[in-house]
Design goal:
The chain is of the alpha/beta class and about 450 residues long. The strands form three sheets. It has a six-stranded parallel β-sheet, with helices on both faces. Helix 5 runs parallel beside helix 6 and helix 10 crosses helix 12.
């Protein structure tokens, strides 16, 4: 098929590349001419594992190209994916769908034949209904333009794998014709046994919000339990392994850490909480808000652990934070727990240097008040304490013996329970890990 992907960001670029990978001819659309030029040259403006290779391969063959022209996309494509941003609104609780409706309004005059618009962005329930009415009113093709909602369930850092090998595809369809179009575009994935869940549009919209809200609650639950373990002298890692064996609970996502972040999960939990309140589900809203409050408390909880490891406040201390991205595998620093902790320590008077293998440029734009170093060893110059805040593999693989001479004091706080603490202790380091008993 001929496919357009409107919006070239953390969602749109991986989706466009993956659609090309499964055999479609793809045109991506974005308003930023500089970004379009880079993409057409096969250069990736974001870091996502596996994406640069797909992008360079398919732009070179001509199967994937990019433009700023919606008219060109409308003339070219049989099906259009909307992958524009839906940031949190000014109220701090709901989605700003301005880009979704703006893209639809701009595309509508060029839709002169029957077509299907597939929404990928995360939105408030009812958005696809309103968007369908708008397009039917403004498009020359009228009611022959149909809107499907096909929420993404991508994990940043795994976006390509999650697009090409998802655990499920969810589509909310208004008609059999729209369902047929979706089945055709995803036929190569369905042939590999990927399950397709066909629902009404409202259910599809709620499925995405419910999935992320549940994940946020699961993360906040284990972080709350980690606080209890710290107070009791218990081991959250052993606790997690034990309860994760229960099939009703499961191990996935049940990792204590500095909290969830990124461009999706925090806003999705906020918006789903707001939807629960709007729909009158006040008890559900209270439960969801509690998960948010636990997550919001993580920087302060991390600071307490850091100061316990130091034996004094962070004021005047030289601290290196390993990690800037909100998780490994991406350069996305939106609502990054690592940067929130680094910024809090800076506010408390510490001199903070941040090292990340891919996210230093994006972090510098968000937090210019911090110091940065792109070299792991160089980041430790005169440091008195290291904080492991993002789960990049090269932090796990660091050699504690080789690094010891580079720091003023051998103190490490592992907020991800990532490293082999015994190996670091044998090399002379004082190690503290989240939700685990202190050992000398």
């Amino acid at each position: 098929m001929r496919v357009s992907v409107i919006g070239c960001g953390h969602l749109g670029i991986p989706h466009a590349a993956a659609m090309a990978e499964i055999g479609h001819e793809v045109i991506g659309v974005d308003l930023d001419q500089a970004k379009i030029d880079r993409l057409n040259a096969g250069e990736c403006p974001i870091y996502e594992d596996g994406l640069p290779e797909l992008l360079s391969t398919h732009t070179a063959t001509g199967r994937l190209r990019f433009t700023t022209s919606l008219a060109e996309a409308a003339e070219f494509a049989d099906i259009h994916f909307l992958a524009v941003g839906t940031p949190i609104d000014a109220d701090g609780r709901s989605y700003d769908t301005g880009q979704v409706f703006g893209a639809a309004r701009a595309l509508a005059p060029h839709l002169t034949r029957p077509t299907v618009i597939v929404g990928k962005s995360t939105v408030t329930v009812g958005t696809s209904r309103d968007l369908g009415a708008l397009l039917a009113r403004l498009s020359p093709a009228g009611e022959d333009v149909e809107v499907v909602w096909n929420p993404e369930f991508l994990r940043e850092g795994h976006a390509i794998d999650d697009t090409l090998r998802p655990d499920r595809i969810v589509v909310g369809v208004p008609s059999a014709r729209a369902e047929d179009a979706v089945r055709e575009v995803y036929a190569p994935l369905l042939a590999n046994g990927i399950p397709l869940f066909v629902t009404d549009p409202a259910t599809a919209e709620l499925i995405k919000g419910a999935a992320n809200a549940y994940l946020g609650m699961k993360i906040s639950f284990i972080n709350g339990v980690a606080d209890m373990c710290t107070a009791a002298g218990a081991d959250v890692q052993q606790l997690t392994e034990a309860i994760g064996l229960d099939p009703r609970i499961g191990r996935g996502g049940l990792n204590a850490g500095p909290g969830y972040g990124g461009g999706c999960l925090p806003k999705d939990v906020r918006a789903f909480t707001a939807s629960a309140r709007t729909l009158g589900a006040t008890e559900a809203a209270t439960m969801l808000r509690a998960a948010e409050e636990v997550n919001e408390s993580r920087p302060a909880a991390a600071l307490r652990l850091i100061e316990q490891a130091l034996g004094r406040p962070v004021d005047g201390v030289r601290i290196t934070v390993w990690g800037a991205s909100f998780k490994a595998g991406t350069d996305d620093v939106r609502e990054s727990p690592a940067l929130a902790i680094a910024a809090l320590m800076h506010q408390r008077g510490a001199t903070v240097t941040v090292h990340d293998p891919h996210a230093v440029p994006t972090a510098l734009r968000r937090h210019p008040e911090l110091d940065y170093c792109e070299d792991l060893e160089g980041s430790l110059a005169a440091a008195e304490l290291i904080v492991v805040a993002t789960e990049w593999p090269h932090f796990r693989e660091a050699d504690p013996k080789a690094l010891a001479p580079l720091v003023a004091d051998q103190v490490l706080v592992d907020l991800r329970n990532l490293i082999d603490a015994d190996a670091w202790r044998m090399a002379g380091w004082t190690v503290r890990q989240l939700g685990r008993p202190a050992q000398e």
